[in-house]
Amino acid sequence: MSELYNRFGSPLATLFVALVAAWLIGMVLAPNLMMIDYALRPNLPPAEIGGPRDVYSLDNITYLAGEASHRSIFLKTIWASGLVAFLTLIVCYPLAFWLAQNATRKQVAIVLLALTIPFWINEVLRTLAWYILLAFRGPLNAFLLSTGIIDQPVRWYGDPGVLAGMVYAYILFMLFPIYNSIESLEKSQIEAARDLGASTARIHARVVVPHAKAGIATGCVFTFMLAAGSYVAPALLGAPGSRWFTQIIYNWFFEGGDWNRGAAYALVLLVLCLCAVFLALKVARVDLTEVAK
């Protein structure tokens, strides 16, 4: 804080602090406090709000524990979000390593531009593009039929389609943190390990991954949280048997008209996701301040 005031002066630094505080209060703190308030109160007609029945309780939260179908969808959303983070890591790590250690500046610029340009388009339109690609008579089935890999069209909608759409949607959130971490690794360390007889797998396990673990953790945290809170991909690419927990929250708010129960479900999702993230960071031995960088 003192460095901020020394660099920009008191008036400008105070303005910056005030703007950040206003953003945190208005966009982060206030909505979450309202969600907690809604989650702990019953869904009542306007005339009864503030009356004797309008008391705080855990009824909306315990309702989830007693609803077997909702509980199973919730647990599926958590592990499937972890799977999305893992698949995105598998896709991004080799590319990030190549970009950071082997690619020329021109190659880095071309690849990053090619990856970034599609994200100038709205997320809904990008997901609809996947919807067309995975359609029963879409390009993917047409290609597989023409090459003889399959003998009849496959319905890709459901869990495979949702996973593919999410991996694509959040690839940049995984790629950039890992790329930035590996880029700071001196090539001489890799060369020294190779000169000492280390295999490629051992070099990555003992040199690259420990150096880039903060970037890997950051990418996994971002991807996991975004996947757990995603609505567009499950709604467009999913099937009746592949519902996401966010779809149930949406139904409570906009179809069931029960904002209190919807807020309770959203609160449970938020808390459990945060617990999963902190547990993963502890297992990976990565401090939260490293992720914040």
TrEMBL record:
Keywords, ordered alphabetically: Cell membrane, Membrane, Transmembrane, Transmembrane helix, Transport
Residues crossing the lipid bilayer are: 12-34, 78-99, 128-150, 162-179, 214-237, 262-284
Q: Can you name a GO cellular component term?
A: plasma membrane
Q: Which residues form a coiled coil?
A: none
Could you tell me which Pfam families the record lists for this protein?
A: BPD_transp_1
Fetch the Gene3D superfamilies from UniProt: MetI-like (1.10.3720.10)
The record ties this protein, via InterPro entries, to: MetI-like (IPR000515), MetI-like_sf (IPR035906)
Q: Where in the cell is it found?
A: Cell membrane
Q: Which residues form the ABC transmembrane type-1 domain?
A: 74-280
Q: Please give the CDD domains that the UniProt record associates with this protein.
A: TM_PBP2
The residue range of the signal peptide is none
Q: How is this protein positioned relative to the membrane?
A: Multi-pass membrane protein
**Which superkingdom heads the taxonomic lineage of this protein's source?**
Bacteria
Give the UniProt record's GO annotations in the biological process aspect: transmembrane transport
Matching PROSITE patterns: ABC_TM1
Family, similarity comment: Belongs to the binding-protein-dependent transport system permease family. CysTW subfamily.
The protein's name: Spermidine/putrescine ABC transporter permease
Tell me what organism the protein belongs to: Limoniibacter endophyticus
List the gene name. Answer: potB
